[in-house]
UniProtKB/TrEMBL annotation:
It holds the Pfam family Aminotran_1_2. It comes from Massilia agrisoli. Gene3D superfamilies: Aspartate Aminotransferase, domain 1, Type I PLP-dependent aspartate aminotransferase-like (Major domain). SUPFAM superfamilies: PLP-dependent transferases. Residues 27-392 form the Aminotransferase class I/classII large domain. Keywords: Aminotransferase, Pyridoxal phosphate, Transferase. This is Aminotransferase. Homodimer. Belongs to the class-I pyridoxal-phosphate-dependent aminotransferase family. InterPro entries: Aminotransferase_I/II_large, Asp_trans, NHTrfase_class1_PyrdxlP-BS, PyrdxlP-dep_Trfase, PyrdxlP-dep_Trfase_major, PyrdxlP-dep_Trfase_small.
Length: 396
């Protein structure tokens, strides 16, 4: 039965980590995957997480099953973070949240749920989008198309093109939007542009699916999340996937959530019952530890304040790296303009490096980036940046 199976291609992002791990050069640098490293090149264990884990270790509890939808305290804390603590959507019980296995798990629950209740819908993702979006929605049974988004000439959003795409979508289509820190381009919409997008989505009868994996890495936690409450205020329906992989540096714990906004509390209860069926038939219920850590931090005032401070530290360090990257490249590659890297938002820079240049970086310098030229600025630090700049100047 397996004899005719063809070899699948490497994952465009995690496959780079595989190649990186296999590289024996001690000076290798991984700018591929979206992971934040500190200035020593280490994935941080946040102090707020360490403290929450110490508290949890004092109250060691048996590992019974969580409810299908996850830890109640976690789901509540996520809703308050995502929609705002005093959101009318929460008061009216119109939002339901299920704990998910990371942001990817949240997208998958949402995709399977939509496939069941909007089976013929067309799904639209940005051009370009996170490498896994298309495969994930296609895998759930949808046909996936792109909407116009990035303009390589301006290195910003082709907003007129995006609006034209939105207006051309058939009613009932699912439109996947990056709430903040667009992956891979780092080019975000302005608050005014979001207003136009929300209007087009609502008037066009589209189903918005907001993917928010980088809340807090743009302008701040509340600022980055603002678009979610604006969409929710427009009336719904709305799906929101979020992740704590990056913002809590909890990658391997796989903590995320899917929230769905319905028209009434009664409708929301029916939605939740169906989301639970999706979860139950996929993996039954989520794991306990990561959800407990995040819920403890979000609901304990001192830990919450510490988290906000630590997240700000990560955000600021990334910005510093953007500035250094631009300044140093100015010296090493005069005549090449990388000023746009300063304007990009979040962990990534769509650097403009070609597939061939990326290949040279990998083969000749053991520096790993995504084939599309996406580099993770959050993996640069004061010790590796000169090597990265020298190598980029060479391949340019
Ligand atoms: C990325 O885009 O690198 C991250 O979201 C990690 C992943 O799962 O691809």
């Amino acid at each position: 039965i397996f004899s005719a199976i063809a070899m699948a291609p490497r994952d465009p992002i995690l496959g780079i980590t595989e190649a990186f791990n296999a590289d024996t050069n001690p000076g290798k640098i991984n700018l591929g995957v979206g992971v934040y490293y500190d200035d020593n090149g280490k994935v941080p264990l946040l102090e707020c997480v360490r403290k929450a884990e110490a508290l949890l270790a004092e109250q060691l509890a048996p590992r019974t099953y969580l409810p299908i939808e996850g830890l109640a305290a976690y789901d509540k804390a996520v809703q308050e973070l995502v929609f705002g603590a005093d959101s009318p959507i929460i008061q009216e019980k119109r939002a339901v949240t299920v704990q998910a296995i990371g942001g990817t798990g949240a997208l998958k629950i949402g995709a399977d749920f939509l496939e069941r209740f909007a089976p013929g819908a067309q799904v639209y993702i940005s051009d370009p989008s996170w490498e896994n979006h298309r495969a994930l929605f296609e895998g759930a049974g949808f046909t996936v198309d792109n909407y116009t988004y990035y303009d390589p000439a301006t290195r910003g959003v082709n907003f007129a093109g995006m609006m034209a795409s939105l207006h051309a979508m058939p009613r009932g289509s699912v439109v996947v939007l990056h709430a903040c820190c667009h992956n891979p381009t780092g080019a975000d919409l302005t608050a005014d542009q979001w207003g136009d997008v929300i209007k087009a989505v609502t008037e066009g009868g589209l189903i918005p699916f907001l993917d928010m994996a980088y809340q807090g890495f743009g302008a701040g936690i509340a600022q980055d999340g603002a678009v979610v409450s604006r969409f929710a205020a427009a009336g719904g329906p709305l799906l929101v996937s979020n992740s704590f992989s990056k913002s809590f540096s909890l990658y391997g714990e796989r903590v995320g959530a899917l929230s769905v906004v319905a028209a009434s509390a009664e409708e929301a209860a029916r939605v939740l019952s169906q989301l639970k069926r999706v979860v139950r038939t996929n993996y039954s219920s989520p794991q306990i530890h990561g959800g407990k850590v995040v819920a403890t931090v979000l609901t304990t005032p001192e830990l919450r304040a510490l988290w906000e401070q630590e997240l700000e530290g990560m955000r600021v360090r990334i910005r510093e790296m953007r500035n250094e990257f631009v300044e140093k490249l100015k010296e090493k590659a005069p005549g090449k303009d990388f000023e746009f890297v300063r304007e990009q938002v979040g962990m990534f820079s769509y650097s403009g490096l070609t597939k061939e240049q990326v290949e040279h970086l990998r083969k000749e310098h053991s520096i790993y980036a995504v084939d599309t030229g996406r580099i993770c600025v959050a993996a640069l630090n004061s010790k590796n940046i000169d090597r990265v700049i020298d190598a980029i100047a060479k391949v340019l």
